[in-house]
Amino acid sequence: MPRDFRPSPTDAAPPDPGDDGGRGRRGLSPRVLAVVIAVQVVLIGAIVALAVGGLPFGGDDHGGGPTSATAATARAVPAGSVPRATVDRFDGARALRLAQLQVDAGPRPAGSSTLRRVAEKLRARLPNGRFEDVPGHPGLRNIVGDLAGPGPVIVVGAHYDTINRPKGFVGANDSAAAVGAVLELARVLQRTPRGAGAPGIRFVLFDGEEEPAPTDDFYRDALRGSKAYVQLHAEEVRAMVLLDYIGNKGVRLPREGTSTQSLWDRVRAAAGAVGVQAVFPAKTQVAIFDDHTPFLRAGIPAVDLIDWGYRYRHKLSDTLDKLSADSIDAVGETMVQLLRTWAAGG
């Protein structure tokens, strides 16, 4: 359960249309009223002409996005829906089935026998999959897989344990969906050509992300697998992308407040290239303690892809029916595009 540690920036509230600022109001003369109406008619006509003609509006792209035509299409996506990618490499339905594999096992808190059984199935689906013990926390194991390439590597991660409360919590979006996406991403990238000298990719499923008991210091008591991983491997890593809360219906992933801006810009540009930039709005949400935080503290560029507005977070209702293959697919196709085009030395 990642934890936010500051409020998100908020825009100023719009002025009340009934408030004249204490200056008083008076009626308009008929002549002035006629002029106002005429101007409004002209403006409405211009807007309609633009919409019918299909001309793109000025972009709000932040850090290298799609063409203006693509941006216009992205802005046309209704709120609460997820655009379909223009490519078909990642299988969102397959990733969703991998999420179901975990949810069907029931609650999976760190160190539990259930999690250990599930971990064996996850490890077998990663290239060169292996366990790495978490020092200082007996029974906790990160799951690691690799695709060959020169180092430092790019880490793609998610946590695979669930919080141990409320009783019965199965964590469909926190974080079975993200784990399913990482496994499917590993499968796809094994079959996807990348440029000569493209960096190695390391898939890490972190154990012990959740705190074992209520705490007033989440960073100290949680994130056990990721803190240990960074302590052991920081010098091997060039960048890190964390997936968390990425599978909910209508997913939206604005930049998490601490995520490295330049790396998030690359993620958003990749989303634009595959037609799903609407999922990554050019906004910044709350800053969150999550498994990317130890990487940031070690000076490693990192981003956290997380929909903190997910209405079922930390509730028993975080169940499989809240997930969407389309949401997972949009994130997965974005990640395939990001990683397959990551140039040598980049």
Summarize it:
By secondary structure, this protein is α/β, with parallel strands linked by helices.
Helix content: 25-40%
Class computed from helices, strands and strand pairing: alpha/beta
Can you say what the CATH homologous superfamily of the largest domain is? Answer: Zn peptidases
Give, in spatial order, the strands making up the sheet with the most strands: 2-3-5-4-6-8
Q: How many DSSP helices?
A: 10
Architecture overview:
This protein is an alpha/beta fold and 346 residues long. The chain has 2 domains: 27 residues; 262 residues, 3-Layer(aba) Sandwich (Aminopeptidase), CATH 3.40.630.10. The protein is built from 10 helices and 8 strands. α5 links the parallel β4 and β5. The protein starts with a strand and ends in a 6-residue tail after the last helix. About 20% of the residues have low confidence.
What are the key terms here?
346 residues; alpha/beta; Aminopeptidase; 2 domains; six-stranded mixed β-sheet; two-stranded antiparallel ribbon; 8 strands; 36% helix
